[in-house]
Amino acid sequence: MADRPYIVGNWKMNGTRAMLSEARAIDRAAQRYMKAEVAVAPPYTLIHAVHREAEQIGIGAQDCHADVDGAHTGDISAAMVADAGAKFVILGHSERRADHKESNAQINAKIGHALEAGLRIILCCGETLATREKGDAEAFVLKQLKASLPKIEDAAERLTVAYEPVWAIGTGKTATPKDIAAMHKAIRGLLDETYGPEVSAEVRILYGGSVKPENAKEILSIPEVGGALVGGASLSSESFLGIVVAASETEEA
Ligand code: PGA
Predict the structure, then answer these.
(1) Cα(233)–Cα(220) distance, rounded to whole angstroms?
(2) CA distances (Å), 226 to each of 9, 82, 97, 101, 185, in order?
(3) How far is the CA of 153 from the centre of ligand 1 (A)?
(4) Distance 9 CA to ligand 1 centre (A)
(5) Does 102 participate in catalysis according to the annotation?
(6) Which helix (H) or strand (E) element contains residue 151?
(7) pLDDT interval class at 251 (50, 70, 90)
(8) Per-residue pLDDT tens digits for 190-199
(9) What is the model's pTM?
């Protein structure tokens, strides 16, 4: 399972029911590329509908609340997204950290509830350009992860980490293969330390930030990279499937 590249589309705040045809196209095609594990995280409003349409691909949510339930108008809990058909949830995305001032402690709390609700987790981390230019990228990312990684038993089995440099998201810029490999190695080191090497080996580390069909093969061939978290290019089945094809053609696949 963990050795298949994991290609996850994050639709962000995009998509009405008109997008269901894209989900159907992705699902149909995914059957032909079984060397890759394919998933999409539509907005909350489409989770149930995509879940009903798609049989082959994984369906997830883009966030959930840090409390189990209660007086939080407009928010959605982990149990609710699971009930709608989500099997995983993306947590700690840099857009949530920036737009909603989410802290590592809050993200850790969300992870706890999501695991209790039976969900798998994609935990995001990544540095800003200013942090990278100061030479602090690795220390920053490891600090984010140390403060948010779940420590509860069996958590690692349901965990994926996504390294997404903030300056590469939606900008058309990507980190160099050398920088991606170095950061992924550092993250692996922390996972080894936290869970032990055997359990850590089951945790895939994805890269995210302007992954497109044109650069997917180069990025996915980096041995440390276990897949991709894809924003913009996941909004059309054609470009998303271009990445899925690249993933199923990489040597490791
Ligand atoms: P992008 O987004 O592919 O549009 O850069 C990636 C992400 O935010 O997950």
Answers:
(1) 15
(2) 15, 25, 24, 28, 12
(3) 30
(4) 9
(5) no
(6) none
(7) low
(8) 999 999 999 9
(9) 0.96
Helix (H, G, I), strand (E, B) or coil at 69: coil
Q: Which of 4, 7, 8 is nearest to 41 (CA)?
A: 8
Structure tokens at 48: 């149930």
Q: What separation in Å is there between the alpha carbon of 171 and the centre of ligand 1? A: 9
- Site to probe by mutation for ligand 1, drawn from 164, 166, 207, 243 as the one with most ligand atoms within 8 Å of Cβ, is 164
Find, among 176, 173, 204, 222, the residue nearest to 8 by Cα. 204
Which residue out of 51, 65, 93, 184 is catalytically annotated?
93
The answer to whether the CB of 172 falls within 8 A of the CB of 210 is: yes
113 catalytically annotated: no
Ligand 1 lined by 58 (C-beta under 6 Å):
no
67 CB burial (10 A radius; 0-12, 13-18, 19+): middle
Q: For residue 125, give both structure tokens.
A: 């981390």
Amino acid at site 103:
S
Q: How confident is the model over 60-89, as a mean pLDDT?
A: 97
- Is 212 in contact with 233 (CB distance < 8 Å)? yes
